[in-house]
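Write out the 3D structure for:
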Amino acid sequence: MKTIVCIERASLGPGVSLRAPRFAHVWRDHDRTPPADIVARLAGAEIAVVNKVPIGEDVLARSPDLRMIAVAATGTDNVDLVACRRRGIVVSNVRGYATTTVPEHTFALILALRRGVVGYAQSVQRGDWQKAAQFCYFDFPISDLRGSRLGIVGGGAIGASVASIGRAFGMDVVFSTQRGGPERSHYIPFEAVIETADVLTLHCPLTPATRGMIDRHVLRRMKPGAILINTARGGLIVDEDLVEALRGNWIAGAAIDVTTPEPPPADHPFMSLADHPGFILTPHVAWASVQARQAVADQVIDNIDAFIAGAPRNDVAKA
């Protein structure tokens, strides 16, 4: 009888079902787990289902029965993969579930900024329309997507889907190499993309090489009318530098779905931009359509079943 502990059940949200694995097991659910309770809740567990809770060397050392970590996400930067590899623990993530939901959210943010939706909605709430001298007013710039350049950092499945939508809008779509990375066929150097993109959108993983890749030096080189979108990982951007860029009008706008940490504290730099007409902050929900969350749940169980069958899938800790 295998023991499975899900320590972040609430991260899958409502309207999503987790079907039972195909083998004899005991399943223990916890909606949320604070760091201080992780080890106690994993006691006796051979399989842990996690999302964002950190699983480091200290947790692994005190969880001797653990043989598999099923991550209910694609990103695994919360798990110490080196320590798992050393201990022979399989770490399986989920893949391909977000190729519709994240690109659609990305374009919701792009359209909101390029069409001045935030600024106009705020102005209507203030009563500015009633004060207008004619049927409309032009306080915030509106720009079409057709003919503008969409620069994409990250050429995986999500980036490819974003590119497809961009082309449907008639945008000039280019893929960027990573900052300081090698040249790649069909990719444009990072420096050229940041200087020419009207929309720069991030869809790459958070690694030591990509952490802080969007800093003041990059923001200074972007076009004054450009907008920045991040639905990937919060650590890709130096937060204070982006705030300075928006306050200083270095770029026209930014829309962010991810922060470090999450949720952001009240004194997080982005919270100072709450009333900025060129800034949008959404609470890490780009991935969260009902369809996508159900796909995550289904793939988590598929990964667990495959592990027990002796054929682990999506093992990111494998040497």
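The mean pLDDT is 96.
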